[in-house]
Design brief:
This protein has eight helices and seven strands; from the N terminus they run H-E-H-E-H-E-H-E-E-H-H-H-E-E-H. With about 230 residues, the chain is α+β, with helices and mostly antiparallel strands. The mean pLDDT is about 90.
C-alpha cells in the first residue's frame, strides 16, 4: 500500500510538472503577444503625431481611460463628503495608491478629493513597476503578496487572468475584466517621495503644490515613491 502511494505521488509529480511546463509556454506566448500590442499602440500614436505635423494640424491624443490616484493627506480635518469618496476609492491611509477607470462619475469624485490626493495617467512602466514591486492581492479578504502566478490564477483564473503579465495588461488597457482585476489588487502602500513633497504640499500641482491632476507627471512621482 505504501509503495502504491509512493507510485501515485511520483505519477502526480510528473503530471504536475507537465501541466506547469504547458502553463509556462502559454504565459510566455501571451507575454510576447502583449509586447506586440503595446508596441503597436505606441507606434500608431507616433504615426498620428507625425501625420498631424505634416499636414499642419494638431494631434489631440485620446482621452485617457486609466488614472492612478495617491492620497496625499492624513485622516485629520477632512470634510465628510471627501472622506466618503476617499473611502469608496479605498484610499484609507496617506500614501495609499489605486488604479481607477476614468468615467464621468469617477472624474467628479476626483474633483471632490482634489485637496487630498494627487493623480494622473500612468504609463506601462509605472503599472508594471507598481504591480511587480508593490503588488498584493486580496485572497479571502487577506493581503497576500503576488510572489507567484498561482495567487493570481486561483482568484482570477475564471476570467482568463493567470499571470502577472495578464494582470498588467488588464489594468493598463482597462480591459473587460478591469473591475475584478483592480478589486483583486490591494491598494498600494507607497513611501514618502525621495526628495520630499513640494514646500506647499496642499496647493494644486499647477500652483507649485502636489495635489490634483498632474496628467503624465504622475509617473515621475510614482518612481520617487515606489
Amino acid at each position: 500500500h505504501a509503495q502504491k502511494t509512493a507510485a501515485d505521488k511520483a505519477a502526480e509529480k510528473v503530471a504536475n510538472k507537465k501541466a506547469n511546463r504547458q502553463k509556462r509556454q502559454v504565459i510566455f506566448k501571451r507575454a510576447e503577444q502583449y509586447v506586440k500590442e503595446y508596441r503597436q499602440i505606441e507606434r500608431s500614436e507616433v504615426r498620428l503625431r507625425r501625420q498631424a505635423k505634416q499636414t499642419g494640424n494638431f494631434f489631440v491624443p485620446a482621452q485617457p481611460k486609466l488614472a492612478f490616484v495617491i492620497r496625499t493627506k492624513g485622516i485629520n480635518k477632512i470634510a465628510p463628503k471627501p472622506r466618503k469618496v476617499l473611502q469608496l476609492l479605498r484610499l484609507l491611509q496617506i500614501n495609499n495608491g489605486v488604479f481607477i477607470r476614468l468615467t464621468y462619475a469617477t472624474t467628479q469624485m476626483l474633483q471632490i478629493i482634489t485637496p487630498y490626493a494627487a493623480w494622473g495617467t500612468p504609463n506601462l512602466k509605472t503599472v508594471k513597476e507598481l504591480i511587480y514591486k508593490r503588488g498584493y492581492g486580496k485572497v479571502n479578504k487577506q493581503r497576500i503578496p503576488i510572489s507567484d502566478n498561482r495567487v493570481i490564477e486561483e482568484t482570477l483564473g475564471k476570467y482568463g487572468i493567470i499571470c502577472v503579465e495578464d494582470l498588467v495588461h488588464e489594468i493598463y488597457t482597462v480591459g473587460p475584466n478591469f473591475k475584478v482585476a483592480n478589486n483583486f489588487l490591494w491598494p498600494f502602500k507607497l513611501s514618502n517621495p525621495t526628495g520630499g513633497w513640494a514646500t506647499r504640499k496642499f496647493r494644486h500641482f499647477i500652483e507649485g503644490g502636489d495635489v490634483g491632476n498632474r496628467e503624465d507627471k504622475i509617473n515621475a512621482l510614482v518612481r520617487r515613491m515606489n
